[in-house]
C-alpha cells in the first residue's frame, strides 16, 4: 500500500480531522493520490447530520468500489460512529473507524490493531440508553460508545484544491458538544466538548503565519465553549486575545459561535480589532419561541435578537449569518410565519437554510406532528428567497466602494475569486496570485445568484 486518498464530507471540523489523517499517513511514508481511482487506500471521512449525508457516504463507497475495486476502503467520521454495523455491512468496506478512534486511522490502515484495542461484543451506538461504555470490534470495526480521550488533535485545512492550496487555512480548536438539542445526533457521535490546548493553538497559528498564510479561520463544533473543559477554565475571548497578542496573524476569522457565547467582551474585541474579520455567524434554527423550546435550544427569540442587534450596532457593515431549520416536528404554518417574520426583521446578510431530517436516537425523531416533506421544502424556498433579498441589499451598499480583499483562486472563466473582510465574495478581472491582498473597486452586483453563491464584480486597483 503506497498511495492514499481522503474524501471529507460535511463541516469544517470533519475537514480538519481529514487533514490530520493525511498528515499521519504521509508520516508513515504513503503518498497522496490526486483521485480515489489511483489510490491503494481510500478513506471516506463521513458526516451524519442528515439522512442525505448518510446517503452521500454510501454512494461514495459504491463509486469507489466500482471505479477502483482493488482499493481498500476505510470509513470513518460521524456516520461510522453512529452506525458502525450498518457501514461495515456495505460491500467493499475494509475498516470502519468511529470518531472515538479516528486519531488512530493511520495505524489501523497500515498495521495490525493497536495493542490497547480491547475487542468486546458489539453494541449498537444508536442505542443511546447504554448503562456503560462498550468498546466494539467486529472484525475490522473500531468504535467506542463514549469518548474517554480528552486530547484534541486536528490539522489545519487549506482552502482550495489539493495539497497546494494557498489561502485561508481552517484551524479546528474545539470538538464535541455538551448541548442536547432534540434534533441533533452530533453530541453522541463526537462526544463531550474538548478543547485544543492554548499553546498548541498558538504553535499551529504561528506555523501557518510563518508559512505565509494571511487569514486563518478558527472553527469547532461548539467553538464558543473553547476552554470550558480546562482546569482552571478558560474562555473563548482569552483564546482570541492570545492569538492577537502572541502571533502575527494578519486576519483572524471566527466561524460559527452560539448566540449566548457572543458576550459583550467578544463583540467589543471583534469590532475594535482590524485583525479580526467583521463577520458573525450565530446558529438560530428557528425564530419561533415554541419551536426553540421543542428543540431544547438554550435561548429565546428575544435573547437572540438582542445579540444580533448588538453586533450590528457595533459593526454596521459586518456580515451576519445564521443557520435556520424548517419543518421541525410541530412547526405549523403559524409557527413558521412567526420564524419567517422574526428573520425578516433582523439585519442578516445571509442564511444557511436546512430542512429538518429525522435522526435515529434523537428525541425529535419520536415527536408527533412531523411536517410533510413537500411543505418543508416550500418553507425552505421561502427562507432562501428572503436570504437572497437580504444578500442583494447588503451587497448593493458597496457599489462604487473600494474594499481590501484576499485573493483565493482563479476560476475557469479567467476571473480571480476573492473574499472581503466582511465575507463578500468578489470576482476580480484577470488572473491574480492567490493569498494576496488587493484593493478592489466594486463595479457591479451579480443578479443571477442563489443565496450566498453570488459574486460582486470588481476591478482590482
Describe the protein's architecture and organization:
It is a single chain. This protein has helices at residues 12-27, 51-67, 78-82, 84-88, 105-110, 186-190, 198-210, 236-246, 264-272, 289-294, 301-314, 333-344, 373-396, and strands at residues 3-8, 31-32, 41-46, 72-77, 93-98, 135-136, 141-144, 157-159, 167-175, 194-195, 215-220, 251-254, 279-281, 319-326, 350-355, 402-410, 416-420, 425-428, 437-445, 456-460. The chain has 461 residues and is α/β, with parallel strands linked by helices. The chain has three domains: 3-144, Rossmann fold (3-Layer(aba) Sandwich); 157-396, pyruvate-formate lyase- activating enzyme (Alpha-Beta Horseshoe), CATH 3.80.30.20; 402-460, OB fold (Dihydrolipoamide Acetyltransferase, E2P). The strands form four sheets. Strands 2-1-3-4-5-7-6 form a seven-stranded mixed beta sheet, sandwiched between helices. Strands 8, 9, 10, 11 and 12 form a five-stranded mixed beta sheet that branches. Strands 16-17-18-20-19 form a five-stranded mixed beta barrel. α1 (12-27) links the parallel β1 (3-8) and β2 (31-32). α7 (198-210) packs parallel to α8. The longest helix has 24 residues, at 373-396. The radius of gyration is 22 Å and the shape is globular. Mean pLDDT is 88; it is low at 113-139, 159-164 and 449-453.
Amino acid at each position: 500500500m503506497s498511495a492514499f486518498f481522503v474524501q471529507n464530507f460535511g463541516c469544517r471540523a470533519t475537514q480538519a480531522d481529514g487533514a490530520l489523517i493525511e498528515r499521519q499517513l504521509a508520516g508513515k511514508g504513503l503518498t497522496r493520490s490526486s483521485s480515489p481511482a489511483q489510490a491503494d487506500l481510500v478513506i471516506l471521512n463521513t458526516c451524519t447530520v442528515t439522512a442525505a449525508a448518510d446517503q452521500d457516504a454510501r454512494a461514495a463507497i459504491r463509486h469507489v468500489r466500482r471505479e477502483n475495486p482493488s482499493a481498500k476502503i476505510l470509513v470513518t467520521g460521524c456516520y461510522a460512529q453512529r452506525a458502525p454495523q450498518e457501514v461495515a455491512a456495505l460491500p467493499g468496506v475494509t475498516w470502519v473507524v468511529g470518531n472515538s478512534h479516528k486519531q488512530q486511522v493511520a495505524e489501523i490502515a497500515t498495521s495490525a490493531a493497536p495493542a490497547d484495542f480491547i475487542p468486546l461484543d458489539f453494541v449498537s451506538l444508536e442505542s443511546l440508553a447504554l448503562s456503560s461504555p462498550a468498546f466494539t470490534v467486529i472484525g475490522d470495526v473500531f468504535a467506542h460508545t463514549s469518548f474517554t480521550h480528552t486530547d484534541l488533535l486536528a490539522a489545519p485545512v487549506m482552502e482550495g484544491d489539493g495539497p497546494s492550496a494557498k489561502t485561508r487555512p481552517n484551524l479546528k480548536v474545539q470538538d464535541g458538544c455538551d448541548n442536547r438539542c432534540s434534533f441533533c445526533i452530533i453530541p453522541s457521535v463526537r462526544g463531550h466538548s474538548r478543547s485544543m490546548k492554548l499553546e498548541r493553538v498558538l504553535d499551529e497559528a504561528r506555523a501557518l503565519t510563518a508559512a505565509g498564510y494571511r487569514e486563518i479561520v478558527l472553527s469547532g463544533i461548539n467553538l464558543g465553549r473553547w476552554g470550558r473543559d480546562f482546569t482552571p477554565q478558560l474562555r473563548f475571548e482569552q483564546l482570541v486575545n492570545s492569538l492577537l497578542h502572541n502571533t502575527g496573524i494578519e486576519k483572524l476569522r471566527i466561524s460559527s459561535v452560539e448566540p449566548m457565547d457572543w458576550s459583550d467582551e467578544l463583540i467589543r474585541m471583534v469590532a475594535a480589532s482590524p485583525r479580526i474579520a467583521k463577520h458573525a455567524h450565530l446558529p438560530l434554527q428557528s425564530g419561533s419561541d415554541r419551536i426553540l423550546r421543542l428543540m431544547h435550544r438554550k435561548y429565546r427569540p428575544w435573547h437572540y435578537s438582542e445579540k444580533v442587534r448588538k453586533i450590528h450596532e457595533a459593526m454596521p457593515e459586518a456580515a451576519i449569518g445564521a443557520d435556520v431549520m424548517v419543518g421541525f416536528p410541530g412547526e405549523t404554518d403559524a409557527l413558521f410565519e412567526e420564524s419567517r417574520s422574526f428573520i425578516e426583521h433582523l439585519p442578516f446578510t445571509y442564511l444557511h437554510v436546512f430542512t429538518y431530517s429525522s435522526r435515529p436516537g434523537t428525541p425529535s425523531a419520536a415527536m408527533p406532528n412531523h411536517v410533510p416533506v413537500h411543505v418543508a421544502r416550500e418553507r425552505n424556498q421561502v427562507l432562501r428567497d428572503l436570504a437572497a433579498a437580504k444578500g442583494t441589499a447588503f451587497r448593493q451598499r458597496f457599489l462604487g466602494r473600494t474594499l481590501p480583499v484576499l485573493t483565493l483562486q482563479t476560476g475557469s472563466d479567467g476571473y480571480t475569486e476573492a473574499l472581503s473582510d466582511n465575507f463578500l465574495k468578489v470576482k476580480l478581472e484577470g488572473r491574480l496570485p492567490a493569498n494576496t491582498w488587493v484593493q478592489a473597486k466594486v463595479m457591479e452586483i451579480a443578479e443571477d445568484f442563489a443565496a450566498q453563491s453570488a459574486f460582486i464584480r470588481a476591478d482590482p486597483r
